[in-house]
Amino acid sequence: MGLREHLNKLDKTGSLLKITKPVSKRLEAGGVLKAIEPKPVLFENVKDSDYRIMGNLFCSKESVADYLGITTGDIIPTLNKAIEDRSTPEVIQDAPCQEVVETDVDLDKVPILFHNERDGGPYISSAVVVVGHPKYGQNLDFHRAMQIKKDLMSTRVVAKRNFHAFLEDLGEVNVAFCIGNTPNILVAAATSVDIGINELEIANALEPIRVVKAKTSNLLIPADCEWVIEGKVYRDKRHDEGPFIDLTQTYDVIRNEPLFEVTCITHRKDAIWQALLPGAFEHKILMGMPREPTIFRKVNEKGVRCLDVNVNPGGCSWLHAIVKIDKQREEDGKLAIEGAFEGHRSCKHVYVVDKDIDIYDPLDVEWAMATRFQGDVDMIVKDKERGSSLDPSSEPGTYLTTKIGFDLTHPLKAEGKTYAKANFPKVDLSHFIRE
Ligand SMILES: Cc1cc2nc3c(=O)[nH]c(=O)nc-3n(C[C@H](O)[C@H](O)[C@H](O)COP(=O)(O)O)c2cc1C
């Protein structure tokens, strides 16, 4: 479909809020997006830039499924299939993302948002980053970048990322930060797969894409994105990065991160900047959703019938997972807990529920905990395990954390009271209420 077509579709269906009042990229745009989340917004009149800004485009599983033309229930099998059946994208010469090429780099002219007062600087938070390695080929993932000067940024590279492995190995890498992408590319970039797998091929399997050679390297990049910020990232040239809001909606600490020297900016003539609010729904959906297929696969590998997985926003879409199973044996709940922790190493709390529980309704999950759980028999506690650097409560520096699994499934044979939720008779209200 493409992002422009998707924007038009949102506009036609009245789902896009177009703001014509002048808005600044400094604090105002981020504030409006947060205040109106999850409504998609197009800022048509940006005070301090010649270009428009769009945001809140994909704040829910529904919005991603809608773009891909599937149901939310199909997202996990569709992602798993795209990983297995990945394919090579078409290479083109004349790409929309290179209609304008600027080698006299000035990042101040780009509508990079200054999101919050305490931030260390203006931040690119929506960039899908393409990087290459002579042995492993191309990798695609997300890295935030803080602007330091007109042509200089500092980028956050978490130690266990493939990008980090490339940088450690090569010392410096050519990169392309691509902004303004469709969900097939966003989700693929947010999916962790083995080093050597080019996530652009997963994106292509989700929905065919076109790629083009970058202007300053041989990298093949999404041809239909809006902006491309090209340059080099250095292992040994570093600069303080942060503070910035992280996935947990808390402020991340300042770290000394690799420098990103920008050497070329390309974009569409009427390019639109894609904003992505840190710690908000879009960030959460893109972080949590790609972990659901790996949890789903691991739980099934334990011989448990896994029906669905929700790495839910209440758990920062990273630290909690709710797993729905069709229980066949008493031990299935505990096996599913083990599978979930293997499928998502950063997960801290896992909740396993029966097939009659709605894993997207927090009240229903809590109801299962209240009526089907006993702490002395239905819990697995894993003391002092490696947790997530994102979790402010994990042990500083080591990130050691205590992981807990909650088996909220009821016994197959009920003794005493039944576990089923009683339902009231279904009625057609129109019989009783005059419109
Ligand atoms: C919106 C968003 C922002 C992210 N920002 C960063 C970041 O700044 N640094 C980082 O190392 N990982 C960040 N990530 C996580 C990785 O990009 C993500 O886990 C990716 O799948 C890692 O890919 P890899 O396994 O190929 O390394 C972000 C993810 C998302 C969805």
Bound molecules: flavin mononucleotide
Range of strand content: 25-35%
Shape: globular
CATH topology of the largest domain: Pnp Oxidase, Chain A
Low-confidence stretches are none
Number of domains: 3
Q: What is the CATH C-level name of the largest domain?
A: Mainly Beta
Sheet of most strands:
9 strands, antiparallel
Radius of gyration: 23 Å
Average pLDDT rating? 96
CATH superfamily of the largest domain: Electron Transport, Fmn-binding Protein, Chain A
Your description of this structure?
By secondary structure, this protein is of the alpha+beta class. The chain folds into 3 domains: 1-57, no CATH class; 88-270, Electron Transport, Fmn-binding Protein, Chain A (Pnp Oxidase, Chain A, Roll), CATH 2.30.110.10; 287-407, UbiD C-terminal domain-like (3-Layer(aba) Sandwich), CATH 3.40.1670.10. It has helices spanning 3-12, 28-36, 61-68, 75-84, 162-170, 183-189, 199-206, 281-288, 291-301, 332-343, 362-372, and strands at residues 17-19, 41-43, 52-55, 90-91, 100-102, 123-124, 128-133, 137-142, 145-149, 152-155, 172-179, 210-213, 220-222, 227-241, 244-245, 251-252, 255-267, 272-274, 306-310, 320-325, 349-353, 379-386, 400-407. Strands 5, 6, 7, 8, 9, 10, 11, 14 and 17 form a 9-stranded antiparallel beta sheet that branches. Strands 19-20-21-23-22 form a 5-stranded mixed beta sheet, sandwiched between helices. The chain has a 4-stranded mixed beta sheet with strand order 1-2-3-18, covered by helices on one side. Strand 9 and strand 10 (152-155) form a beta hairpin. The two termini are 40 Å apart. The model has no long low-confidence stretch (mean pLDDT 96).
